[in-house]
Design goal:
By secondary structure, the chain is mainly alpha-helical. It contains 18 helices and no strands. Helices cover about 75% and strands about 0% of the residues. Helix 1 (about 1-25) crosses helix 17, helix 7 (about 150-170) runs antiparallel to helix 9 and helix 11 packs antiparallel against helix 12.
Length: about 350
Amino acid sequence: MDKERIAFIDTARGIGILLVVFGHVVWGKNYPMTGADTISNYIYSFHMPLFFVLSGLCIKKSKVLGKDALKKMAKSYLVPYIVWTILYMTAFQTLAMFRGEPSVISCDRNIFAHAISICGVAPLWFLLALFIAETIVLTAKKLYFLGGGRERAACIILIIVSIGLSIWYEQLDDMNLLARNYLMGTLRIFPTTFFVLVGYGFKDRILKCTAWAIKRRIIVIFVLLLIQAAVCLTWNERIDVQLFSLANPWIYFVKSLNGTYIILLIAQLIHSKLLTFLGTKTKELMILHYPPFYYTVVLRILLGKIFSPNIAGAIIITVITISCCLFIDKIMSRLRIYNMAMGR
């Protein structure tokens, strides 16, 4: 059962990282195909909550927040976050100088404000947010705030607080860019901690569905997909967890939890070595996929001349981007400094 659970979680991660890269490919003006906004909005409604829930599932009930655990988490999350943020900012600054654009090293530049605040640079913010959320959950566990059914009450409180803060945040007037980034990063702690707690607190219930008959799983997936489609088409809003932009927060939590559960059920039906392998490389792909993705701009132009932008072209770009990342990781993993930068 342990091996089955590991494969099932890694498969879900593999599906998740495919959605992340594909979502970035079709986002905004990156690949102007028909229906791009609807597709990216659908993916963004649950793809990051999926990873937080999966991280919660991987927290052992016996794990305690001690010196060793904190050190291990810092090595896995904080070290890559700091190192790659510096590398990203160096690359952005070099590119700006090459193009003759204003320096990105300025507090009035959004990317720099992200970097020096707890908001974080995309897509690296996920590492910092995960470190904070897991630390909070383990701290609450150590202080006996969790256990004995208290996880449910904690989740309800976190949802209510997150919704209230989201409504309040959307009504704020203009404020200093750096201050807003610090505020976004702080407020984001509540929903991200909620999703980690869902994975941790409801692990037994989530894993019980691995014993369901295949027919039952397929029926449940079909029903949930209908619900997700109806909700997403009715409330086709842009979600960005990084920026604490939840649109309609009530609907957001419905879409995020429903979408996450759909992927978890699908992952139990699929026995794919490729998806499982991609799941084991989630952190590497999350960190590396931005540069290769931008380098595919030439490919996007060529594909656009051959045929109008469509899903097939977006899938090709996604596959090439992921392949480039895996190749880079395989070559660079021979270097000790690279492995340290990846938190290995």
